[in-house]
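Tutorial, part two.
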Amino acid sequence: MELRDLELFVEAAREESISKAAARLFISQPTISKHIKELEQELHTKLFVRSNYSIKLTEDGLRLLARAQDILALVDRTKSEFQSGFETIAGDVEIGAAESDAITAFGRVLKSIQLDYPGIRCNIFSGNITDVCDKLDKGLLDYAIIMGFVDQNKYDYLSIPLHDNWGVVMKKGDALAEKDILSVQDLSDLPLICSRQWLSLDLSQWLGGAIRKYQIVATYNLAFNATMLVKAGVGYAVMLDKIANTSEESGLVFRPLKGTPETSMFVIWRKNQTFSQAASVLLERMKADLQTLS
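Running the prediction step on this input gives:
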């Protein structure tokens, strides 16, 4: 399997057309068809279902697309690290991050690096702990900023000495908004919009029972989408403080949940990981800056 095979396969999948992919890449249709056919023969499976006007990925095609995109992204990262050179510290640093107000501490580090090393660029991928750890394990990220538990068998880490608190975002005129603090009992009869992170935690201690007792009508991994559902009247969003827009003009309010544990934040990276110069600079800055917060 050659990288060129994967590149042409990914382009054809994106365009859902061999002719459009060929036109975009300025090559002939038979060339793309030949590479895809060779891939199918090598993998002993059909990657596309073909019609007169388009092509659609099969189940195996979808699996290969996800893997091929990861492989090509890793190749691009490797090229970028070596092409940046060694005389000047520069290059991209890939970071996965959960949505949290604690990201402000990380932002301060990035600002200082920006001033001293303008050739370093940090690319942020937002997602829940499953999303970012999956990319970290595949080598697509240098670091991940997560909340909750760190698997110390797999990762080295830095503790961020800041904490987040759980609460509920609702419409400003809601009767429940008259309370300054909510209890978990207040949630029992409400249609809840919950983060996947929240559902992955051990909730039995502060929900007072099994999660199936609660009416979860939707889940999310980005807070903005959850607030749009709240505005549409779908339900009440359970999320961390300070990540939703609850300004006066937003029409939303946040109310903290009493008795819920504070959520700890960490920067993690793979054990025995080899860093680029740019990623090493970021790590040293994070270590120094986080010590000042301790």
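Residues 84-163+264-293 form a domain with the D-Maltodextrin-Binding Protein; domain 2 fold (CATH 3.40.190.10). In part three we will examine how such features are distributed along the chain.
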